Amino acid sequence: MLARLEQNPSPLSETALRRDSHVLLILPKTAKSGPRPRVPHQKILQAALRRRGKKMENLAKAPVGADLPNGAFAVWMALDSGLSAFEQQTAVCKGLLQLLAENPQAITVGVFGTSEQRRRAAEIAVYAAWVNGVRLPQRKKKQDEKPLQRISLHGYRAADGFAAQHAQAQGNTLCRELTVLPPNELTPGAYRERIRKLARQYGWQREEYDLKKLRKMGAGAFVAVAQGSAGQDAAIVHLRYRHRKAKKTVALVGKGICFDTGGHNLKTARYMQGMHEDMNGSAVALGILLAATAAKLPVNIDCWMALAQNHLSPMAYKQNDVVTALNGTTIEIVHTDAEGRMVLSDTLTLAARAKPDLIIDFATLTGSMHTALGDRYSGVFATDSDLAQRAVAAGAASGERVCVFPMDDDYDPALDSAIADVKQCTLDGGADHILAARLLKRFTDGRPWIHMDLSGSSCKGGLGAVATDVTGFGVGWALRFLENMR
Description:
Layout (H helix, E strand, L loop, with lengths): L3 E5 L13 E7 L13 H10 L12 E4 L5 E7 L5 H16 L5 E6 L3 H19 L16 E5 L8 H18 L7 H15 L2 E6 H7 L2 H7 L8 E7 L7 E12 L8 H4 L7 H16 L4 E11 L11 E3 L5 E3 L7 H14 L4 E6 L3 H7 L4 E5 L2 H14 L3 E3 L17 E2 L8 H10 L7 E5 L21 H9 L3
Parallel strand pairs: 1-6, 2-4, 2-5, 5-6, 9-10, 9-13, 12-16, 13-17, 14-15
Antiparallel strand pairs: 3-4, 7-8, 8-10, 11-12, 14-17
């Protein structure tokens, strides 16, 4: 549950500050000689700056905190409107975290400056407070931290109560909550039950393709991975959101490997640690669907989630197997730890058969993307330059930054197989993120398509407005992208 928001368009006064014990004051960055807005407890701020050998203009680089006479704690910062969305979000998050570190039940946010400056500061601060004020699942015997209950905003009032930010916070929070769950709790079967409850709650149409049905359909790529798990609870789940004013339909496809051992090509302990997060792509797709539903976006959405585990067992697929995918393509298995592209292949085929205007898939797919970008960006591939440019623009606007990678035809010979239509991957490791995209493209039936390799799904210390290591990257990006498809 996100914190309750109270709005007051009047500027924050020292009298209003007596109510709460934790206060964030966001000033606009101003020129050295320019006029500065009057802010509460300015003498205390100036004294705090002098003690640190700083000046007012330094607030644009780092927030400053100090105790108020009534015992409250205040943080002052200046927001530079010339910075990128990501940089502005990071700056506000730094100030907010000084308050949240004390686990308050309520915070007061005051925004200052022109109407546009106050609007932008308020949007970022409210969203950051919502996503960082929740408590993600943990299983400690003693849990002292409690979620934030109330946000009191002064200086700006949004007529819709910041509906877009609230919807995005809901989707991002759902994504992160699912991603951090331990693998013994979020098995494919348990995941499917959670999705059933959400579908009932939000009125989504739901269809499940379990293993029995997928075998009968000939989805050999998905089944090859799923057959190694004792539970046999894997499935492809399809959810539908429809809006009466929608003119476009988008298919969201997510990789949902609830735990990845690597299969016969077993991961070492170092690389198996954290593999319960390999379902993050499906959580991103589900989070986008939830956020789009809450925001009532006039876009039709089909959400496809490939839910399985990659286990080691006598039934598990192995190197040199040849399997037949749902669209008839035969695939030579080269490495069993390249399971993501296998489950996505058949899921993309199902998504493409509905002939959407666009397919977007999300997956924590390759280590080579981490090598290329680290964990502060995610990589995207697109079927044309216009889609690629729109993807980058959505990243810049949302603060979830993406980098476009090439996907030229002349990469294909690396995947030539002597015994099948295509190899699953190579053992060389070079450009594996590009080869994976080239393989997946074969299953999109020529539809417009974007593939996001989620190297930014987890980043130590968070990214932008999100301070947790698991970032929910992709939800904000997709909402901004979908808004422009109306």
